[in-house]
Task: inverse folding
């Protein structure tokens, strides 16, 4: 089950630097627009301190953390919806991701050019938001024309879709993203094939100077904070340059560096966990002598669905799930302790998995 978070923003805001830090890679990050042409893709481990604690009890041969995919997408410029810059190529890449990490520049550096020759975070956000909305508007209008033609024959499905698309069109015209429009689940499902850009959840990543990391008191940072709050989106403050330095250190040096900065975790860990939350994801675990592993599922998935994430045979032949809550597993000394205390539960296929559950699936092939 793959989950993709696309890193977007104007050119030279620090997208590729952030991607390098996330993946500990060496992606091209030059001081000119469009140095990232084709998207770079990297799998990133999801930080979770529960997994090594679980592994202490089973001493597995290997420990496998959960992971999610980050995609470094080319910088956008004003007019992209009309083909400026990389235009449609840029927009097509965004359509393929599940969520958007919008990197916004809030640092001053005369050696790093800005496409507008000034650092103004809200203006940068407005450029990206406008281009995504214009692209969505074009998509919706095309779909609306098709539905209106179909509704002339009296087809109720086309008529209902036309009414829905008219609402979406008017909402976009008002300057608001589709993700903020109140829609029923069935309506969101009807719109899903359109891959609307502004329907995707957004995490703002404010790329700040080092002195702004603690409280983010700079005017640009404060403006992005207010914007994210008003729009109901999430915000994480990072210094991409510092995070890239941290990523190059070994574990012990990295911990010391982060502590010296006055933090308990890196900005990248906050970005990854925020992206995980943004996608509505959670983790369950399996643990045994061969491996201890974290598995990623959508919140609200059932035990049989979770079994299918491991292997489709597990879902098709599902019998039951032996389940232990994480807190019980740790407090009672692992599986045997939980079993002896009566805290190991037998759950059926419709059981809704809780974040942190340790599970063992029984199935017939």
Result:
């Amino acid at each position: 089950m793959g989950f993709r978070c696309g890193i977007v923003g104007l050119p030279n805001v620090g997208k590729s630097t952030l991607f390098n830090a996330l993946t500990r890679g060496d992606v091209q990050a030059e001081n000119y627009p469009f140095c990232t042409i084709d998207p770079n893709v990297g799998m990133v481990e999801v930080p979770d301190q529960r997994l090594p604690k679980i592994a202490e009890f089973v001493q597995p041969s290997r420990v496998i953390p959960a992971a999610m995919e980050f995609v470094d997408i080319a910088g956008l410029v004003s007019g992209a919806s009309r083909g400026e810059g990389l235009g449609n190529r840029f927009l097509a890449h965004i359509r393929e991701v599940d969520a958007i990490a919008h990197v916004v520049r809030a640092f001053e550096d005369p050696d790093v050019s800005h496409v507008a020759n000034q650092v103004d975070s809200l203006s940068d956000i407005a450029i990206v938001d406008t281009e995504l909305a214009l692209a969505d508007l074009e998509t919706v209008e095309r779909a609306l024309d098709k539905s209106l033609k179909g509704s002339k024959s009296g087809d109720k499905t086309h008529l209902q879709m036309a009414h829905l698309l008219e609402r979406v069109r008017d909402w976009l015209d008002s300057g608001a993203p589709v993700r903020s429009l109140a829609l029923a689940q069935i309506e969101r499902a009807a719109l899903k094939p359109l891959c609307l850009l502004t329907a995707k959840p957004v995490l703002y990543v404010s790329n700040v100077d080092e002195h702004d990391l603690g409280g983010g008191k700079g005017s640009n940072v404060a403006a992005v904070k207010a914007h994210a709050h008003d729009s109901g989106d999430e915000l994480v403050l990072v210094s991409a340059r510092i995070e890239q330095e941290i990523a190059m250190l070994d574990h012990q040096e990295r911990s010391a560096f982060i502590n010296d900065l006055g933090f308990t975790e890196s900005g990248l860990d906050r970005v990854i966990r925020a992206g995980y939350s943004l996608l509505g994801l959670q983790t369950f675990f399996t643990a045994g002598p061969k491996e201890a592993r974290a598995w990623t599922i959508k919140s609200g998935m059932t035990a049989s669905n979770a079994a299918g994430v491991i292997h489709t045979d597990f879902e098709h032949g599902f019998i039951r799930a032996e389940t232990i809550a994480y807190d019980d597993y740790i407090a009672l000394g692992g599986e045997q302790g939980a079993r002896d205390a009566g805290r190991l539960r037998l759950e059926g296929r419709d059981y809704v998995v809780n974040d942190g559950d340790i599970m063992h699936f029984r199935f017939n092939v």
In short: Residues 26-37, 83-87 have pLDDT under 50 and may be disordered. The first helix runs from residue 15 to 23.
